[in-house]
Structure formats: C-alpha cells, structure tokens
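Exercise 7.
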Amino acid sequence: MAVIKPFRGIRPPKNLVEKVASRPYDVLNSDEARAEAEGNSMSLYHIIKPEIDFPAGTDEHDSCVYEKAVENFNKFQDNGWLVQDQEDKYYVYAQTMNGRTQYGLVVCASVEDYMTGKIKKHELTRRDKEEDRMKHVRVNNANIEPVFFAYPHNNELDTIVAKVVSGKPEYDFVSPDGFGHHFWMIDDKAVIARITEIFENIPSLYIADGHHRSAAAALVGDEKRRQNPNHKGSEEYNYFLAVCFPDNQLNIIDYNRVVKDLNGLTDAQFLESLKKHFDVKEMGAEIYKPNKLHNFSVYLSGKWYSLTAKAGTFDDKDPIGVLDVTISSKYVLDEILGIKDLRTDKRIDFVGGIRGLGELKRRVDSGEMKVALALYPVSMDQLIAIADSGNIMPPKTTWFEPKLRSGLVIHKLV
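Solution. The predicted structure, written as tokens, is:
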C-alpha cells in the first residue's frame, strides 16, 4: 500500500562527492555552516544554507537568500558538480557508525500517502519551519535533501539490498564526523519493478527524522497538483525524496535535558521533591547512565543520582503514558521545576545523546545550567506504536544518528 517510485537522481561525480556532501541544514547554524564550507565552493551548504554567501548576520529567510539557493543550484549543474542520471533508478545508501551499518533504499515517496496518513508521523511540526522549507522546495523546484523513513522490515527487500551491496559502491567515504557513507545504484529494471511491488504490500512508512522536510515537500507537491489544470498524477511533483530503512536496523539514542535553575528550590528540597514519584539513589561523581525503561539519571552539584519511577507514574498499556519523556515532563519538569511547555520555555535546553552524558556534566559544571536529566532512549517499537495510534510524541523525544548526508542525490520536481 506504500507507493514509491524510482527517479532520475541528480548526483555529484564520484571524485567530487566528498566536496559536495554536507550535514543536513537543520543540525548546524549559519556560522557553523560558513566555517565548514570555507574554501569549498562545491559544498552543498551554498544551496541548503545560502546565507553563508552573504555577510554574517544576514537574515536566512530574506528573499535574496532563497534566490541565491537557486542561483547556486543552477551553477552546480552548469559546472558539472551535480549531474542528472539518464534513467529512473533506486539507490542504496548505507551508513556506518561504531562498526555498525544500516542500509536504506533511496526512493521517491508519494505526496498522496503523506496527505492521507499512510506515511505516519510522531512529532508536531511548526508552521514557520514548514514555510521556510516550502520556499526552498518551491524556488529550486527540487527536493535537495532527503527525509529519513523507516519501514517494517521485509526479508525479500533485505535479500535484494544484500545482493546490490555485494557489488562495488558508487560512493564510499568517511565524513569528517567519522561516519561511513556508502552508495550504490540499482539499474536492473526487473529489480526496480520488484522493489516497487514489495512496497505496495507494506502498509505504512514512518517518518523517523525530518518531519518539517516531509511536510514541506508534501505540501508543495499538493500545491502544484491543485495549481495544474492538466494534473495527471504521474508528475514528479507528486513524489518527494526519502531514504527508507528497515525498522530492525535503526537505533534511537537518548535525548536529554538541561535546566537553568531549580525553580526557587534548594538542592535538598529538589531531591526531596523527587522522592514523591521516584526512588532516588545517590550514585556519586562517576557518570551514571539510565539502564532500563523508567530509570533516569540526574546530575546536580557534582553528583549523579539514579531515579526509578514508582508504580502509578506510568501506564505501560498507553503508547504515550509508557514513555519516559512523558513521566519526566510531568513529574520533574512540570510539577517540580515549573516548565509547562518544552517548545517555548527558555529555561530548558536539549542535548542529543550522541554528545554523551559528559556534555550534560560540562554544562552543569560550567554554571550555565543547574541540573541535567538523562533519559533511557525510546525504542523503534514505541515510536511505531505511537505513530500507528495517531498520537504525537512529546517534543525532543527521539534522536537518530547518524544523520543522512545531504548532497548524495537530489530529486527534481520536473
């Protein structure tokens, strides 16, 4: 039931891929992108963060910045830094982190499937962020960056992918962050047709990472459909760029919290307040990492504490009520620290687990933050259960790593 199709990807030549490829637009700020692209006119940042071509401080949402994105996208194609494949293909994109590799199929997903809920989400999106990426898709008439999907694993697809990756990759490199990126093309028309057929029997796709990009891509496609009096349904704008990974290969890592103050409480009062809903155990100065569901760690004034949620604070039969982010938000951040809205409260910040719990310790020890809260990571089963139930996860719940490298392949909407 999931509709996908092959496409004529726009890609860098093999010898240029490491110069072109970049991190996704939303994992770094303008200054960081400017620094990473310094001296490299081929960096994709010139297209996905084109404010770097203007003086520092230029508003990234200014119309001239979007116009620069188009100018640079055209320049990359004119210079042969990006070249379109002659025939429709699927691609395999694999990523290696810490010796472990996950294998994704690069496809065009259906706008209609997104609009009707067959592509399932687990996060809310913000309209301002959607509109930014919608403008970017509109002006370039392309999905420059892919979104990250999961699908229920399928043995036949695993076999097909294994055969493809036994051949020599088109791209094979390690990015500056130490992650391996490997990329193959699927040319065989019979194999392409079979992949499409198999996906027709997969009931749903799940957005793992890239909710704003997914929404923007689908909304622009839907917009183009409504604006075209001769719409047929086969046009490229009816599809958007996605990398689909089997759910059993994906790992979600922890997403942790740091808070600026104790809401007027002393350390002793804060720790005492925690005992109402948690069994609290002092663990000393050594970093303590949560070791199972419903176990948390707190770092405060040079000491780590283990928190185990008491019975009655969670509901293992409820896809939202079972989440540790729900428990911690309700009984620590809201009830004790007075943080009601994770999206807007300036007293809280979030730290992806890829940075390690040492980063939580550093931010508290520096005096920038007063207390840190580390959570046990959400599982793929939990994510899928929430998406299937139509519920939305609380903000800042999932962190996927490694991130997709942008610039390996692009999808044009014409």
